[in-house]
Structure formats: C-alpha cells, structure tokens
Design brief:
Layout (H helix, E strand, L loop, with lengths): L4 E3 L7 E3 L1 H11 L4 E3 L8 E6 L2 E7 L13 E6 L5 E6 L6 H11 L1
Parallel strand pairs: 3-5
Antiparallel strand pairs: 1-2, 4-5, 6-7
C-alpha cells in the first residue's frame, strides 16, 4: 500500500507524495492539474496521469543540469483557455560556458 506522504530522506528537505495525495488535493481545491518543479526530468517536463486524465506535471528549467544530465530545460506557459505549452531550452555544448566567460572578459 502506498504511503500518503513521507519525508525525502535522500534530500532531507522535502516530502514525497503519491497519487492519492494529488487526487485529494485536486478534488479539494477544484483543480485539474498540479504543476511542480525542482526535479530533473529527461525531456524538460513530464506529465503523470490517472487513466486518461493528466493530474501532475513536473517542469525543470535548467538544461544540462550540473553538467551531468544532458537534459533540456523547459518553460511552461498556460493560455487563456488553460492549455499548457512548453518551450524547450536545449543544452549547450560542453565548452559553451567557457566561451561565454572568455567573451565576457575580453569585451
């Protein structure tokens, strides 16, 4: 049986929660979707579903996080009719930061 909510012992500063917590939150507040961040996802964003209904999206905006993940970042915008769209931020090459720093020092 899935626990409702537990502390994240790996990070020591957050909580892990499951589908039941999300569903209860959505129903209590009459929301359709929870948007969260601060977790690397391979494609910049990731939806989680309950059947055919999307209930949660994780958005992570830091491309090539810590120089280790080669992930794109993403920015989510929501239209007036509540449709979510994503702009992907592609990772730069491994020397891009060095070039930017060098250009900044010489100009």
């Amino acid at each position: 049986m899935e626990e409702d909510c537990k502390s994240n012992d790996e990070r020591g500063v957050s909580y892990c929660f499951g589908k039941r917590v999300i569903m209860d939150f959505l129903e209590r507040h009459d929301f359709d979707l929870v948007c969260r961040a601060h977790q690397v996802v391979d494609d910049g964003y990731k939806f989680y579903q309950d059947g055919n209904h999307r209930i949660l999206v994780t958005v992570f905006s830091a491309p090539n996080y810590c120089g280790e993940f080669d992930n794109p970042g993403a920015v989510m915008s929501v239209s007036s009719n509540l449709k979510a769209c994503f702009q992907l931020l592609k990772p730069l090459g491994p020397t891009a930061l060095e070039v930017d720093v060098k250009n900044g020092e010489t100009s």
